[in-house]
Design brief:
Elements lengths: L1 E13 L2 E10 L4 E6 L5 E5 L10 E2 L2 E13 L2 E10 L4 H9 L4 E3 L5 H9 L6 E7 L2 E7 L8 E8 L14 E8 L2 E6 L7 E2 L3 H15 L3 E4 L2 H16 L13 E3 L5 E3 L4 E4 H9 L10 H9 L11 H7 L3 H32 L3 H4 L4 H15 L10 H9 L13 E11 L2 H8 L30 H22 L3 H21 L9 H24 L3 E4 L4 E5 L5 H13 L7 E14 L6 E9 L5 E4 L10 H17 L2 H16 L10 E4 L12 H11 L9 E6 L10 E3 L10 H19 L4 H15 L1
Parallel strand pairs: 11-15, 13-14, 15-18
Antiparallel strand pairs: 1-2, 1-9, 2-3, 4-7, 4-8, 5-6, 6-7, 9-10, 11-12, 12-13, 16-17, 19-21, 19-22, 20-21, 22-23, 23-24, 25-26, 26-27
The structure holds a DNA duplex.
DNA sequence: TATAGGCATACGACAACTCTCGC
DNA sequence: CCGAGAGTTGTCGTATGCCT
């Protein structure tokens, strides 16, 4: 009996047979490599008459056996034929032939993943196998905790002083690896603190040896999918060095062009940039996901500044000591980031049941889908097929109504009680049993709000059942972690939250297997119903409703107390079915809502609240948008503070007047007038060329690459005509070059006028008044 | 190889309109 | 008086980035 922690899995074809290889480590830290030759590839065919299935063949591919099974498809019983084939690569070929006989299903599940699902194995968890030599006879999942061996790495490349482009013709000049007990910097020119090799080629060979010597389970880099590993691979190819990091001696394999991935057999390669950006990005403050910014936010550590632009000339001059230090520092930060996100990454991997390599690269929809597939297998549900192109297009044409937003009345109000439904969409799904298979059942009757449909009340649905289990589990975890604070439990609760919050979007996602417009429409219809219900109840109780969006409701307490606010909470909750629950987030001493530009109507999704500690919670305003001019953001934020906290109209007016004045006199530094915008496509794809596109083109003219996601920073110069003809890159802008009047009328005034008008101050009085002062000075 | 829809805002593209000027 | 061209105004579409 062998017990080990599973790190990676992968298959090869040997002598016409598929062999799975499992890579891991036993409790003593010894590497384990086992093979399983007894797992056969298969797919399903749903049909009335299975005749001909056994005879399917093409070239070397053939069917080995066919078994009849009673399964469920979208929660309805069906007879399915399990068609075993001789090779994993036979599946896509023979399924095409099988389409003449019936509907094929589960014909697109990668072989190694199929193995994990069918055996119920969870990577990074304990596995118990009965073996003969290195061959697995039986295998099953156990539970245990293991901390894998991680190694961080980072490369530095030669860049000529005049160019910044990635060019594989330039050599790699330095490679660093870091683990707390293993640190090395390799280079091929004399340098302090580094291991100096004879040539780039020797350094690359040494790098492979260095990694192999440490024998990590995880190799991690920052943006290593798109940069470090493809670069290493390109240089190795050129210098004829095998980049054989794989545990089976295989080379690193890169896949994809726009979204590159680099895989190493037997070792989980984790690109932390990808994981952090995708999973934690939403909740992070930073605008840019550079290693420096991310470390700053997550670790509170900043790396030492080094002028990377000069790395080329420093290398030519042989003065690279500081780059050695920098290189190692980068790997150390990467390693520490890995430690920081490890609990979340581990929990996500365990929940979804995919190898770490895949789990660390999951999109939200994949997270849901793979979890559903794991659950479907255990509940005898067939995986619905992925939609074809036509079906996807049809789905994209469908549009479901979303959440309800209450139109606020512009004004400043005191004592705002903020309520929201806890996990509204998931709890609606559970309390109303919303699932693709429970829609309009024969056994029940009824009608949901706004739609002529109903959901079964007797039989537990598949999707609603899965979510119910997750919600219950999350509640248990939360209770446990309240008792004693634990990083693991917190990470698990977070992973569950991410998963739960993704289900609704997944059900409406055109490429989803478990797509259902009916479910999406029902969920949002119920949500609108419940929010409007709170609003109606609040009004009936004599509260002034100030705002509400999707799952929230904000009430002005007026003469009522916090005690009344809590009583109201109980009143609403009394009428709610489990697990639905309204929560009172907090009572805020003050709040402001404004009108939309040029109208008297209240603006939705733009408001600010002052909490009891005196902090602002700003939503939607320019202050929280990166594509507004810095000065407009700063001034607006200060203004909101003055309005809500100081309650000083004079001070508010003075702030804006002074700022207008400074802009007119060109007194503000360049960084205050910078506008940053992210380009969403390459510059040639724009139909309409706005200022940020013009700025992006300026970058391209300087030889810089602009791709989807590039952030451009620019200012607007003085002059006539279109704004786009007056942009200048922030980095090239000179003091005195910006157009103060532009910023006053297009940035500052729009950002403050609707706040000022709540106080009864017209924007004209602000700009005119300063004009008078300048005239007086004149 | 985008989880969803709702919303505000800025600016360009384009058409319609006004104004000016020369004949 | 008319017609050309410049300039202005208004509407619509594109684009970004936020909120829940």
């Amino acid at each position: 009996m062998t017990r080990f922690f599973l790190v990676d899995i992968h298959y090869t074809i040997e002598a016409g047979k598929a062999i799975l290889r499992l890579y891991g480590r036993d409790g003593k830290g010894k590497p384990v490599t086992l093979k399983d030759e007894n797992f056969e590839p298969y797919f399903y065919v749903v049909c009335d008459d299975p005749a001909g299935l056994e005879d399917l063949k093409e070239d070397d591919f053939h069917v080995t056996k066919v078994e009849k099974e009673e399964k469920l498809l979208l929660e309805k019983p069906v007879t399915a034929y399990k068609v075993y084939v001789n090779l994993p690569t036979a599946v896509p070929v023979l399924r095409e032939l099988a389409k003449d006989i019936g509907q094929t299903l589960e014909d697109d599940v990668l072989f190694a993943r199929r193995y994990l699902i069918d055996k119920g194995l969870t990577p990074l968890d304990l596995v118990e196998a009965e073996v003969e030599g290195d061959s697995i006879k039986t295998i099953k999942a156990e539970t245990g905790t293991y901390t894998p061996k991680g190694l961080a790495f980072d490369i530095e490349t030669y860049t000529p002083p005049d160019r910044k482009e990635i060019d594989y013709d330039n050599p790699i000049i330095m490679i660093a690896v870091y683990a707390p007990d293993y640190q090395k910097v390799l280079t091929w020119k004399k340098a302090k603190g580094a291991e100096v090799l004879d040539s780039e080629k020797a350094m690359l060979e040494r790098f492979v040896d260095v990694v192999k010597a440490y024998d990590p389970d995880i190799l991690t880099g920052y943006a290593s999918d798109g940069f470090d590993l493809p670069y290493l691979l390109a240089r190795c190819k050129k210098l004829k060095v095998p980049l054989a990091l794989g545990k089976d001696g295989s080379s690193v394999i890169t896949k994809g062009r726009s979204r590159q991935e680099a895989r190493i057999t037997g070792i989980a390669h984790v690109d932390l940039y990808k994981f952090i950006r995708r999973v934690l990005g939403r909740t992070m403050k930073t605008q840019s996901f550079s290693l420096n910014n991310v470390s700053q936010e997550l670790l509170g550590e900043k790396k030492q500044e080094v002028d990377l632009d000069n790395i080329g000339s420093a290398w030519d001059a042989g003065k690279i000591d500081e780059f050695v230090e920098y290189n190692l520092q980068d790997t150390k930060l990467t390693y520490n980031l890995m430690l920081k996100v490890w609990p979340s990454l581990l929990e996500m991997t365990k929940i979804v049941g995919l190898p770490l390599f895949d789990a660390s690269r999951l999109s939200f929809s994949q997270f849901v889908e793979w979890y559903m597939m794991k659950k479907a297998f255990s509940m005898n549900e067939l995986f619905p097929a992925k939609p074809g192109y036509r079906e996807q297009t049809r789905r994209m044409g469908q549009r479901a109504q979303g959440g309800y937003v209450y139109e606020p009345e512009p004004g400043v109000y005191d004592n705002i009680a903020v309520y929201d439904y806890r996990s509204l969409y998931p709890s609606i799904i559970v309390s109303h049993n919303i699932s693709p298979g429970t829609v309009n059942c024969e056994c029940c009757k009824g009608k949901i709000p706004e739609h002529d449909m109903h959901f079964c009340k007797k039989k537990q649905g598949f999707v609603s059942g899965v979510i119910k289990e997750l919600l219950d589990y999350r509640t248990t975890i939360k209770k446990q972690s309240q008792k004693n604070k634990d990083v693991v439990l917190e990470a698990r609760a977070y992973a569950l939250k991410v998963l739960l919050n993704s289900f609704y979007g997944y059900l409406g996602f055109a490429m989803a297997r478990w797509y259902s417009t009916q479910c999406v429409e029902a969920i949002t219809a119920y949500a609108r119903h419940y929010v409007k219900d709170v609003i109606a109840k609040a009004e009936k109780q004599g509260f002034a409703v100030r705002y509400g969006d999707t799952d929230s409701c904000m009430l002005e307490l007026g003469k009522k107390t916090e005690k009344d606010a809590k009583k109201f909470l109980q009143l609403v909750n009394k009428g709610l079915a489990d697990p639905m629950e309204l929560e009172l987030e907090d009572v805020f001493p003050a709040g402001i809502w404004v009108a939309t530009k040029g109208t008297a109507q209240g603006a939705k999704k733009r408001y600010a609240l002052l909490d009891k500690e005196g902090n602002l919670k700003i939503r939607g305003f320019e202050s929280v948008r990166r594509n507004a001019a810095v000065i407009a953001r700063k001034t607006q934020q200060e203004l909101l503070m003055i309005v809500l906290k100081d309650r000083d109209k004079e001070k508010a007016v003075k702030l804006v007047k002074d700022t207008v004045d400074k802009l007119r006199k060109n007194e503000l530094p360049i960084e205050d007038v910078v506008i940053t915008t992210q380009v969403q496509k390459t510059t040639d794809k724009y139909e309409s060329v706005g200022p940020h596109v013009a700025a992006a083109k300026l970058m391209e003219n300087k030889g810089r690459t602009v791709k989807k996601g590039t952030i451009v920073a620019y200012i607007v110069k003085k002059g006539e005509g279109k704004i786009r003809d007056r942009v200048q890159l922030a980095e090239d802008a000179r003091q005195g070059e910006y157009d103060g009047e532009y910023y006053i009328t297009n940035s500052l005034v729009p950002a403050v006028e609707n706040i000022l008008s709540v106080l009864g101050v017209s924007p004209e009085s602000i700009t005119e008044a300063t004009q008078q002062t300048t005239l007086a000075g004149f």
